[in-house]
Design brief:
It is globular, with a radius of gyration of 24 Å. The protein has eleven helices and 22 strands. The protein is 19% helix and 31% strand.
Length: 542
């Protein structure tokens, strides 16, 4: 039976846009819309380069253009090479440095341009900004990368700290296999019961009649891709940058890795700003989560575009003084927006919580304990990994964590999941900074996966995720798991809890339980993991 799919083609160009086919240095032409403000004077331009159809309702660039035009900016929106109306080969990450440079060069030679260019956008079109930074065009004056990472390349599967070996991300593979086949986008549901798992996507490629080169470079083993050429963005000429992060973004930890790395480089540190909200990859906010309304409100548009416009007013237009911008603007969940000069804010401290009473961790809530006192019991706990009874994912996709914001209680109570719960809070506890889990663990298998979530447990027992992370271990030794950064208030009556699982299916590829690649195995094996000790380091205010 052939797999069914929906093919999504380019939407009509809005009447408010003027499309040009802009020639790159190799002769390939990229479809480019220009939205101009009123008036005849040359203006600053903001460039957006994306692979998701510049005219689709998904990216709503005609609405974005209204906001930018009202501030006096030209908005230039372009389908990247090989996508939708643009010419060229469809190949994620390839050619973005040169294409970014050539697109900026085209802009500065237009009669409506005053020669200053900024860039804006989310996810892959945040990566396109970093590629343009690597190109070092002198007219690029400011960038606003949102929910993205320099590590989006060379593959989407393991952005962030390269020292951490990550669990293969099924959702990332689906992204590559649906958005990067050819000019269009495809929607389908792979059959994840197929073994080997790679063949679940082969069925889609056969039905479509084409395959994704980006998928083939990533599955079953990532192949290094030279996305930036001779200059990595970290080593390029510093450009004022506003890092727009979502605490609930599925690649938020990777973007905060960029932020912390650039903060160590004086040139970049001087021009790097942070705007971090309690939102997910698609912009759903913590407020009133889970959400039933998919529409973008005026308030949401203000939150999405306001920080970027204010940033460009300072660094692109020069219409506002530098001191109008906070160095760090961050949202404290359940409280509101805060400002500070640094991140983490002044006055924070690291609290280390021991994973104590480990022998109770496979029991139902409260399981083991999260304690500020070192665990002197010396207890350990085994937990099993059974590929025939995988721990189920609690939401359909991590891109929209807060669209669903599921209750994790049923997963936490499984006997193949470790649960550690802290005491009921009598005073608010404000988290403001990185969260990291360190385990001393081993497995009967050559490798084992650890997927961890820090939860807020309400008085009624419902448990909602605050941050998450994953890592793959080998042998016995210290396993470090980066759970990202957060700004979050644990309110009185609530408790912190940590869950540790060996799978999260189908969002993550299950471990093979052997030396075999998990994408290629047809008969994964069960295993037993042993946790000897562990500690959770959280950053708190006060």
């Amino acid at each position: 039976m052939s797999l069914e799919f929906t093919r999504i083609t380019a939407a009509p160009v809005p009447s408010t846009a003027r499309q040009s086919m802009v020639r790159m240095r190799d002769g390939v032409r990229l479809a480019t819309d220009v939205y101009l403000p009123e008036g005849d004077e040359p203006v600053q331009a903001v460039l957006v380069r994306l692979p998701y159809d510049k005219n689709s309702s998904f990216v709503f660039m005609d609405t974005v253009a209204e906001r930018f035009n009202a501030r006096g900016y030209a908005l230039v929106v372009q389908d990247v090479r090989g996508k939708f109306r643009s010419e060229g080969e469809t190949a994620a990450w390839s050619g973005e440095v040169n294409d970014g440079y050539d697109s900026i060069e085209w802009i500065v030679n237009q009669e409506w341009s005053d020669g200053a260019v900024g860039m804006f956008g989310d996810s892959y079109y945040g990566f396109a900004q970093w590629a343009a930074v690597a190109g070092q065009h002198p007219a690029l004056r400011a960038i606003v990368p949102r929910v993205t990472s320099t590590g989006w390349a060379p593959h989407v599967m393991n952005p962030g700290d390269p020292a951490i070996r990550r669990v293969p991300w099924m959702e990332g593979a689906l992204y590559l296999a649906s958005h990067w086949v050819d000019r269009d986008t495809y929607e389908y549901e792979p059959d994840y019961s197929i073994r080997p798992l790679r063949d679940a996507f082969e069925a889609a490629f056969e039905a479509i009649g084409a395959r994704s080169s980006a998928f083939d470079l990533t599955v079953p083993r990532p192949v290094p891709v030279d996305a930036y050429g001779t200059v990595h963005p970290y080593d390029a000429r510093p450009v004022p940058v506003l890092q727009c992060v979502g605490w609930y973004d599925n690649i938020g930890a990777a973007q905060m890795y960029d932020y912390t790395q650039l903060a160590k480089r004086p040139g970049w540190a001087a021009v790097q700003y942070l705007s971090a909200g309690s939102s997910d990859h698609n912009g759903y906010p913590l407020h009133d989560a889970p959400h039933t309304d998919d529409s973008m409100s005026e308030e949401s548009l203000d939150s999405y575009l306001g920080p970027a416009l204010d940033f460009f007013d300072v660094f692109l237009k020069g219409a506002k003084p530098l001191d109008t911008l906070p160095k760090v603007r961050w949202h404290l969940g359940h409280v509101g927006w805060q400002t500070s000069d640094v991140w983490p804010p002044e006055g924070t401290r690291t609290v280390s919580l021991s994973l104590a009473d480990a022998q109770a961790a496979t029991s139902a809530a409260p399981g083991g304990s999260l304690s500020e006192q070192p665990d002197a019991s010396g207890s350990s706990v085994d937990w099993r990994y059974n590929p025939e009874a995988l721990v189920p994912s609690t939401l359909p996709m991590t891109w929209i964590q807060l669209r669903f914001h599921p209750d994790e209680q049923a997963v936490a109570d499984r006997d193949d999941v470790l649960l550690f719960t802290g005491p009921v809070r009598t005073e608010p506890l404000d988290l403001a900074g990185p969260v990291e889990l360190t385990l001393d663990a081993e497995s009967t298998a050559p490798t084992f996966d650890v997927l961890a979530k820090l939860l807020d447990v309400a008085p009624d027992g419902t448990a909602r995720m605050i941050v998450r992370g994953d890592a793959q271990g080998t042998g016995r030794g210290e396993l470090r798991i980066d759970l990202g950064h957060t700004g979050y208030r644990v309110r009185p009556g609530h408790r912190l809890a940590l869950i540790v699982a060996g799978s999260d299916f189908p969002l993550y590829v299950p471990n093979s339980g052997t030396d075999e690649n998990p994408w290629l195995t047809t008969a994964p094996k069960p295993s037993t993991q042993t946790l000897h000790t562990g500690s959770l380091n959280i950053t708190v205010l006060g």
